[in-house]
Amino acid sequence: MSNSMADNIIGIYQRHAGVFEQKRSTTLFEQPWLERFLSLLPNNGRILDIGCGNGMPIADYFIRQGFQVTGVDSSQPMIDRCLQRFPEQCWAVADMRSLALADKFDGLIAWDSFFHLTREDQRQMFNIFRQHAQSKAALMFTSGTSNGEAIGTLEGEALYHASLAPEEYRQLLQEQGFQVVSMVAEDPDCGGRTVWLTQLGE
Q1: CA triple 136-139-140, angle to 5 deg
Q2: Which domains, ranges and CATH numbers included, belong to the chain?
Q3: Is-above-0.90 flag for pTM?
């Protein structure tokens, strides 16, 4: 059941890209975390936004701060919106689970996207993160608080989420050379999100 729900995520965001845009807050409540993330990057660094959605408001914020963004999302309608808004940046339709860009970035972010994967797919993502990371690259992502699955809704359709235990995330990060810079569970200043900010070693 959970795998079929997870497989439906791409279709949901293709069908409801317009509704998502209407409902997605653009108040930048995420800004304190985005600033911490950018503080780990070189000036004018290159960012890979994994599950970039329509580019608002996060990619937009990075671009306005002078960073170069490459955004990938599995939803063509989302990428179409990115291309319309920010034609000078790089955008591509891609499934993060099979991402292989043959390029490395100064920062990687998977904000409110990575947690739509099954737990097994999440485990496999850490190698993909590492393959796209320059030395000392920052990696930031959101997760759940404990090992398990949760189902939300978007326009009446089941919206799958999953999480590993914090201890397993720490182990997977360590195995790939990422050190945890900051982790806050259910951050009250960020809409209750659990946020991981990490950095790759030398």
Answers
A1: 150
A2: 2-200 (3.40.50.150)
A3: yes
